[in-house]
Amino acid sequence: MKAIQLIEPNVLIEKNLPNPTPSAGEVVIKVKSVGICGTDVGIYRGNMEVKYPIVLGHEFCGYVVGIGDGVTNVKIGDYVISEPSWGCGVCYYCQRGTPSYCCEPRMYGRTCDGALAEYVKSPARIIHKIASYIQPIEAQSVTSIATALRGIKRSNLKVGQSVVIQGPGYSGLNLAQLAKISGASPVIVTGTRDTRLELAKQVGADVVVNVNETNWQNKILEATNGRGPDVVIEATGRPDAIPQAIDMVKMGGTILVFSVTNGVVRELQAVKLYQKDISLIGNKGGYFEYGNAIEFLESGIIKEREMVSHTFSLCDTPQAFDFAINNKSEVMRSVILFD
Ligand SMILES: [Zn+2]
Ligand SMILES: [Zn+2]
Fold first, then answer.
1. How far is the centre of ligand 2, averaged over its atoms, from the C-alpha of 99 (Å)?
2. How many angstroms separate the alpha carbon of residue 97 from the centre of ligand 2?
3. Assigned CATH class of 2-141+304-337
4. Rounded CA gap, 170 and 108, in Å?
5. pLDDT value at residue 212
6. Ligand located closest to 285 CA
7. How far apart are CA 38 and CA 75, in angstroms?
8. Residue ranges of the domains in the chain?
9. CATH 3.40.50.720: does it fit domain 148-282?
10. pTM, 2 dp
11. Angstrom distance (rounded) from CA 281 to CA 273
12. What pLDDT shows up at residue 130?
């Protein structure tokens, strides 16, 4: 089969690999689409440890074409998506129902070959069926929706509460849509690019604020009765967003740090957490929200098609990565589409 291998940081090559065969409990999926996310780009650039050579791609959909012994939840021909990672099943955390804390987590494109290939092998227990009317260009989004959904639930955002989402990127706009669905009001999105903020409005943000404008903080105060938002969700990947969130959140409010960043937060005044009685929380993955994410997509209450900015073929995957790195401001979401 045709596959795109990462042989060292920043070097992707096309290669013919043997077709995978399913062992017991596994399925083989013919890939139809792969979404390229920040983690893929991080691995590509060498920011995360992986075993080379490796096939990247962990947010994907496709058709089941092979089934190992003992698989009962899917059959040949089913249209499916997969969770991107899974626990070992036997460690302290897995045995307590928290596989996201697994001591030896497995992930496509990190510990085993991923979906930037004609076929990919998956454990059947992390496969979910999805309705055939959801096009592959949208079905690749389930992981992002599930992760955002878990984040919204962890932030404890309630009906009628105000929320600021910092960063109108792909994750930020999924968070904004889910905040709106949760009944938050107003849903405020902050960012630096007007085109992105316009898209935020299109997918349901009530108020958008460009933080390059003077007095942008006043706009947030005006939209929140002078008190600041109940919840701030950081979706920028920028360390300086966190002190900003601490300053803007309401007394007793909650800050969810959603976007992964290796950067150091330099000016965090911890005393403000005390003074404002702030809850500061993180979010790791979308475990147990995949079924709900699929239902949101199938029912049409979350919009994904308009968030895909670029598509590429499998052969053009190296260009897709280069493009994502060199045109950061243009790329909202790149998707590899298969024939
Ligand atoms: Zn990802
Ligand atoms: Zn485990």
1. 6
2. 9
3. alpha beta
4. 21
5. 96
6. 1
7. 32
8. 2-141+304-337, 148-282
9. yes
10. 0.96
11. 12
12. 98
